[in-house]
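Please, structure for the following, as tokens.
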Amino acid sequence: MGAGFILARGRTSVRFLLMAPHARPGVRNRWIVRNYDLEFLKKFSMVIGFLMLVTLGLMIAAYFVHQQIPPEIDPAVVKRTEQRIAPVGAVYAGTTGASAQAAAKAAAAAKAASQVAYGGTTDGAVIFDNLCAGCHKSGAGGAPTLDQAHWGPRLAKGKDTLHKHAIEGFTGTTGIMPPKGGNPALTNEQVSATVDWMLANLK
């Protein structure tokens, strides 16, 4: 019995089934896709490719549209910027302008003073009582108390060296002096004034 073909009907196409020699009827060995099946697959692939190109185009268009949208600006940031540049852009004229200028300077000075430790005072007693007394009255951490016996070798180095160590910090054999007593808001003048007050009040 030679090879033959059996016509089979599917849902979407008609296929010819190749029968091998001596094959029993009803047993399928392989089938051959007809030309219109290949044409359908070709068109289907083209549609998929077209849809992919459309999707890519939409993504690119969305990106460029997004770039054209101005970023949102926080109103708080705008307000701070306006407040910062207001003194620069203000115009003062006549008596009213002079008064406004004086008030602006006073406000700026008050604001600057509030950002400096202890209102910017150079009263060594005030700074010592609020910051330094914790260590220099009890001797904690090897800090020298206000006794002459503790200051002899230190005084021998000179007042400028003591100022430098108090401002920049110093590690000695008995303890550590943190920069500006651990309060970076102090100015160099405040630190030097406090050192001078301590030296003037040694017992």
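The longest strand covers residues 4-9. The radius of gyration is 45 Å.
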